[in-house]
Input
Amino acid sequence: MEAEAYRGYCLESVAAAYDVVLISGAEPTWERPFLTDYEVADPADPHALAAAGRALAERHRLAGVVTWTEWYLVPVARLARQLGLPTPAPEVMQGCRNKATARALFARHGVPSAASQGVRTAAEAANAADRIGYPVVLKPAAHAASVGVIRVDGPAELADAYAFAAQAAGHGVESTQVLVEEYLDGPEVSVECVTYRGETTAVAVTRKTVGMEPYFEELAHSVDAGDPLLARVAPVAAAAIRALGIRDGVSHVEMRLVDGRPRLIEVNARIAGDMIGHLVHLATGIDLPRAATDIACSRAPDLTPTRHQAAAIRLIYPATSGTLTARRLDESFAANTPWLERIRFQRCPGDQLVLPPAGDMFTSRIGFLIVTAPTAELAQERAEEAYRQLTVEVAPAAPESAA
Output
């Protein structure tokens, strides 16, 4: 259900222009109307993935392969290479997936980033934090969606924070390290970029709202086709992409503005999550899933803007962990609000919701709503107005009884 809610628009866009064959870890359900053929295989299993790719290549003339899933960037690059299809080098994708490698490349190429040190123990983390200076951020070197990322304001918090980050880091494939990094204090944005044959075009900037301190859960995003910030952040995003060796593909480049100057957080070598690609399409008319697929098939993407407006998403979280008992949007409001583009719930009454630190976005998010407007400021106001029309009821989890 989450895949359909957040990536359905990608598959729909690609299927409008191409015959799609899919490799999926489970039998397709909602995807079937968009598919010509499919194979069931675990994309994280290189042998199963290769066998599924060969089976589809025997039945169809494949032009390219693409993924919008962070954890599959390296396996899919290897698969494309095995099938003789266009692809970024797997080594380049490994650099994108390993934040320690990325930091080193940013430093080597003079891209403004954050001081960072990889560690394997809490003692090493404490030493690194003392050297960098508090506050610091601890994060897994190879994860995604802000899972395991935490700010640490002083030495007393360090041990627990390291355990929190290390637990998530243990699931990494490209690296199981924890990084201790300089805290970049400033507004967070992302730059949505398209690179074709070494030339990068920054098509939009996304303004982000991050909350639930000391964690970094993303609560809202907005995209404005006329955002003047794009001109300032685009050169830094392009420099980061060059530093990583990316010559083709769609990238989601995250950064913070420290004293007004861009500093890199990371480069995700795929379409952004949280429906940001859809916001870009609503605001500018540029179709990022189509662009990613065109590039994967060695075709020049069409990046011509056809709209000039704004769009925003508000992500829905509970106030407390517990059992979801109700979630609905006022029906009259929804029926009489043309700027409410969509609302999707991914959790149902009876589901358990677990906020950080015990949980993350995958265990706590209830859904999202999207609005449009002439400007980002108005879109953000409309998103909050729609959010106030929501009813979300949660029965708090009972406290554990004393032994």
The first helix runs from residue 2 to 15. The CA atoms of residues 252 and 268 lie 5 Å apart. Residues 2-88 form one domain.
